[in-house]
Amino acid sequence: MEHIKADVVIVGAGGAGLRAAIAVAENDPKLKVALIAKVYPMRSHTCAAEGGAAGVKTPDDSLEMHFNDTVGGGDWLCDQDVVENFVEQAPRELMQLEHWGCPWSREDDGSVAVRPFGGMKKKRTWYAADKSGFHILHTLFQTSLQFPSIKRYDEYFALDLLHIDGKCRGVVAMEMRSGRFFSFDSSVVIMATGGGGQVFPFTTNGAIKTGDGMAMAYRAGVPLKDMEFVQYHPTGLPGTGILLTEGCRGEGGILVNKNGYRYLQDYGMGPETPVGEPVLKTMELGPRDRLSQAFWHEQKKGNTVETPWGDCVLLDMRHLGAKKILERLPLVHELANAYVGVDMIKDPVPIRPVIHFMMGGIDANINGEAPMAGLYAIGETACSGLHGANRLGSNSLTDLLVSGKRSADHAIVYAQQASETGNEEVLKAQAEAIVTGVRELLQQGGSTETISGLRREMRTSLEEGAGIYRDEEGARLTCEKIAELRERYKGIEINDKSNVFNTDLQSALELRNLLDVAETVAEGSLQRRESRGAHQRLDYTERDDEKFLKHSLCYRQPDERPRVEWSDVLITRSQPGTRDYSGGKK
Amino acid sequence: MSRNPYVRPVSTTTWYMRNGRYRVYVLHELTSFLVMFYSFLTIFALSALAGSAERWDAFLASQQSTAMLVFHTLALLYFMFFQTFPWFKLAPKAMPVRVGERKLPESYIIIGHYVAWAVISIFIFWLAGVV
Amino acid sequence: MSTQIRDIELEVMRYDPEKDKAPWFQSYTVPCNEDWVILDAINYVKDNLDTTLAYRWSCHMMVCGSCGMMVNGEPVLTCKTFVRELPDKVRIEPLENFPIERDLVVVLDDVMQKLHKVQPYIIRKDDPPAEDQEYIQSRGKLAIFKQLTMCINCMCCYAACPQYSLNKDFIGPAALALAHRYNRDSRDQGKSDRLDILADHDGVWECSFVGACSEVCPKHVDPAAAIQQMKIDGAMEFWKQKMGIPGGKS
Fold first, then answer.
1. Residues of chain A positioned with their CB less than 8 A from the CB of B3
2. Cα(B120)–Cα(B107) distance, rounded to whole angstroms?
3. Which of A333, A570, C68, C133 could be cross-linked to C129 through a Cys-Cys bond (beta carbons 3.0 to 4.6 Å apart)?
4. In the CATH scheme, what architecture does the domain B10-64 have?
5. Inter-chain CB proximity C143 and B101 less than 8 Å
6. Taking CB atoms and an 8 Å cutoff, what residues of chain C touch B24?
7. C: neighbours with 3+ CB pairs under 8 Å?
8. Which residues contact residue A189 at a Cβ distance below 8 angstroms, ignoring those fewer than 6 apart?
């Protein structure tokens, strides 16, 4: 096995990973950065984000308002120090991106434009047409090319962390195209591997979102925080799960049921606003959890439209007119046309809630530090307490930048001061053990199970027991099912024995990660006996601040169900209140 | 260790037979042979002109034979369909024209080319005494 | 939308360098929904018929650029190619003009290196605006280069380009279009920095305006147009220098 020494190892080359890499390179060009990713940076799922990135821009807006919107949107599960830092850094980071060439859409006077978004009191979402994530990713990737201290290892699949005595010592990865194993030796590892939406059957997430970093940290003894909080994006295309940005609603799109009725007003988001004149934080611009939950209720009442891909509601954009749609939402128009055969200029589009984002992730603090020294987590992989129980749209793209930069700055200090050495033999053995594990997986016989079969069962089970609404029995069954699937995993056989680009092996490794993630989602869903934000229980319908104004921390216990502990939420300025999406008219 | 990327061979002589797009492209490029022919014809004409009145008259007569008239007509048509028309259609791509902040519609540029062609043609016919 | 099933026969190119001397074709019969894309059919093969098939894909919404392949001889995004538009027999091969790593996976080192080479980032000679101030860029100025920013690096253009097929040193459509994107961005001042690479004989002048790249581009970036515009830019720069006129801004 080859050993590669680096000062900072970053796993994942999406928005967060690239931002962190650039931050390290700018700050101290002498530090060697190893940027490892299982796909080329342009393929990272950041590219699929459409709507925009939030940051206070207009004079009538304030950091205080952005703070309150975020904490309220997160149903007060947010760590408020993190939110304070986030809203403060957001405008700076977004402006930095503009200086780096991001093609933000503009106002008439040539300044950067902002658009309304769900759950936000003021217009503060910076956007680049309806491809904001794509442009952010490409801007960061292209900017990163000017820093020679960033060495990229494209299509290297990270397997497991190296660690001794609670200190991070690097990561072992497999080069996809040769099957060779590499030990990246470093005191600092920044996890930026994204979320794990692929544990669910209907998701906007691409194939690569398999929670690799979360699983690696979990296996290394680091807890995963608030995993029960998974976000359903209200407007995904049925069948494929392809995302139709919240920007559709920001520009004035409305949601109607099969009777043409704007049903959201029945669920605390009224009164009905005039068509085409969206009012912030009301009706279609309410928060995502509420909108998705409204769908579930409408479905139960039989008000949804039947389509070949299942029950849907309708997103009506016709009143925007061709010009506005083609200028502001060209990608979305193309997607609806291509994948469900609907021209949104002429007809309403069938949509349904689909899994989009994981608020939960690796336990990280305001600096991205995980409970293991030298290990950092940023972006969707991390749970820093920023999003709380429900993320507001357009906060996560900004978070890539804010968390990427801040963690990198802290990681640099750590790397410069506390470089760990010693115990080389122990580390080598650890690395060898990881590789042996993979080789054994390759040789595993049995052939009683298939990767696709186990994956399907896992997804079905999660949708049933850990979907939009949960209950004790359903969640428990899912926990047991996942445990059963982990056992049955030992029965899969990898048919592809090649060393060269073995995607069969990759799928198996990803399934292993998915099962780890699924286990924590299920367990959290079971043990949080309250309803808050995106986690809704039919048997505990109210928020319980006394017992559960806490983060759940899920710890791995080999051969047993995981152990869940609870930690306090950091509250500074905003005491828990009620979330008001009634247009301010109570 | 076991990598062995396979390079699919590309024939330098028959690559253009691969698909319709390439075949049409080569038909465009074949107009270069016609250009070569007309270059030599021009040199020949100049040489005849610099020679004697008889040589010039003989040259003019040779170009008016049925065979040559057919050839010139076919050549003109080939030029039009495989050079002029496609080239005019692509012109706005190579030289987008901005008026203030807006882009001039492509059709304006294409029509502009045809108008210029017509004007220049009329001018040459007038020079030749045809008009 | 229809959910009828049609049996499609996929002829897929396979290549395992540890076993095969040369690529070969393997046939699979896939019952396809009429609203599927060909990527769905390939995923069906991998999930149900043959887990050893290797290929790249991710977003399934034409924005990540992973899934470019040759479908019946055309370089396309397989997540954008609808089964309803295909005949009963479909031939699937890795992107043309790239070495084959394994099955449908090609080696992309060359184009990655070229993307790097054209210096695709904002280069400033003057100071940028203050930290909290954006460059003022009107909608019209954004419109000049906006289409060029849409490139998803799928490399279908390289698969279509005959010049690239004959000369692997050619910088190629996507990389050149990316250079032009920055040259035309009002915030950039790096045109002269990029000139050497672009004006080199493997740069814009290797292009003979076949135009195949623009025809196959799934995002309508129009790299052919970009390259011709750069030729004109390059020529103007040359004459400006010859006549001693100081180089203008982009």
1. 177-178, 500
2. 20
3. C133
4. Up-down Bundle (1.20)
5. yes
6. none
7. A, B
8. A9, A10, A11, A161, A168, A170, A171, A374, A375, A376
Angle at A365 between CA A364 and CA A367, to 5 degrees: 105
Residue C174 Cα to chain centre, angstroms: 5
C-alpha A167: how far from chain center: 26
Type of residue at A176: M
The CATH fold assigned to C5-106 is Ubiquitin-like (UB roll) (3.10.20)
Taking the C-alpha atoms of residue A262 and residue A284, their distance in angstroms, rounded to an integer, is 9
At B114, the pLDDT band (50, 70, 90 cuts) reads: very high
CATH topology match: C5-106 vs C109-242: no
Of C101, C136, C150, which has the smallest distance from its Cβ to A501's Cβ?
Answer: C101
3-state secondary structure of A534: coil
Q: Indicate the residue type of A455.
A: R
Q: How far apart are CA B107 and CA C33, in angstroms?
A: 41
Nearest alpha carbon to residue C177 among C201, C202, C145 = C145
Cross-chain CB nearest to C64 (options A206, A340, A341): A206
pTM: 0.94
Per the CB < 8 A criterion, the answer to whether A574 and A80 are in contact is yes
CA distance A9 to A216: 14
Per-residue pLDDT at A579? 86
Dump the DSSP string for A9-75. Answer: EEE--SHHHHHHHHHHHHH-TTS-EEEEESS-GGGSGGGG--S-EE---STT--HHHHHHHHHHHTT
User: In CATH, what is the architecture of C109-242?
Assistant: Orthogonal Bundle (1.10)
Helix (H) or strand (E) holding A364: none
Instruction: Annotate C204-240 with three-state secondary structure.
Output: HHHCCCCCHHHHHCCCCCCHHHHHHHHHHHHHHHHHH
Cβ contacts of A310 within 8 Å, gap of 6 or more: A238, A239, A352
Domain ranges of chain C: 5-106, 109-242
- What's the one-letter identity of residue A377? A
Alpha helices (H) in chain C, listed in sequence order: 38-44, 109-117, 139-146, 156-160, 162-166, 173-183, 191-199, 212-216, 223-242
Residue A516 half-sphere exposure toward CB, CA atoms < 13 A: 30
Chain C contact present for B130, CB below 8 A: no
Quick check: A486 and A557 in contact, CB under 8 A? no
Domain-wise residue ranges, chain B:
10-64, 79-131
Q: What is the DSSP string of A401-440?
A: HHHHHHHHHHHHHHHHH------HHHHHHHHHHHHHHHHH
User: Which chains border A (3 or more CB–CB pairs < 8 Å)?
Assistant: B, C
Residue C21: Cβ within 10 Å count: 9
Q: Using CA atoms, how far apart are residues A198 and A184, in angstroms rounded to an integer?
A: 27
The CA distance from A561 to the nearest CA of chain B, in Å, is: 41
Q: Which residues in B lie closer than 8 A to residue C96 (C-beta atoms)?
A: 8
Give me the torsion for CA of A554, A559, A561, A564, rounded to 10°: -30
Among C158, C164, C228, pick the best mutation site for testing chain B contact (most B Cβ within 10 A): C228
Burial of residue A348 (CB within 10 Å: 0-12, 13-18, 19+) is: buried
Tens digits of residue pLDDT in A147-175: 999 999 999 999 999 999 999 999 999 99
According to DSSP, the residues that pair with A175 across neighbouring strands are: A156
At A167 the pLDDT is: 94
pLDDT at position A299 is: 93
pLDDT at A344: 94
Task: Say how many C-beta atoms besides its own lie within 10 A of residue A573's C-beta.
Answer: 12
Q: Is there a contact between C137 and C187 (Cβ–Cβ < 8 Å)?
A: yes
Q: Tally the residues of chain C.
A: 250
Distance CA A481, CA A561 (A): 11
Task: Tell me: pLDDT of A445 over 90.
Answer: no
